[in-house]
Specification:
It is a single chain. A five-stranded antiparallel sheet has the order 1-2-3-4-5, covered by helices on one side. It has two domains: about 5-65, no CATH class; about 80-180. It has helices at about 5-30, 30-35, 45-55, 65, 80-90, 160-180; strands at about 95-100, 105-110, 120-125, 135-145, 150-155. With about 180 residues, it is of the alpha+beta class. The chain is elongated, with a radius of gyration of 29 Å. The protein starts with a helix and ends with a helix. Strand 4 and strand 5 form a beta hairpin.
Length: about 180
Amino acid sequence: MLLNITEVLIMRNFIKIIVCFFIFSLLFSCGKGFFKKVDTREVPISGPERAKKNVREGRGVALKNIVGGNRSTNYEFSTSNPMWRATLDVLDFLPLSEVDYSGGVIISDWYTDDTNKNQALKITVRFLSNTVQTNSLKVTVHRKKCSVNQSCNVELFKSRIQEELVGTILRKAAILEKQKKK
């Protein structure tokens, strides 16, 4: 049995209508999630404030939650990591050349103070873990000494600066962690 052109067009339109109806029913069948009433007095207006509220409430979208069931979400943002925040606060005076939270490294640019123009320092902080402990971060300091004819020598600089930075960062991180728990 052969179908003429009008019957084929009618059949295509019918299939399109069924597909649209199916998609429409999928979207609107879960009425509580798609259209929910919102009290504007309780919802922040600005985007960053809404994002912070969603993080506090543990809401977010992840593929593993859709596929693997309802698991709790673990947010690891740089703003919630006290070691990261403390390091940025302590190194606030330095120009930073690389700041990579996912890689766990902060590298400053060469820094020269007014007392010694022929010497510059570069500080690298590597995060080994998120816990507030001495062995959670590694601080290295490089020194660049330049002579009058602009020949420079770069070396690993062993000094008290490393120990002082680690101690200052840990103290600041402990304070931030206590504030976070309150």
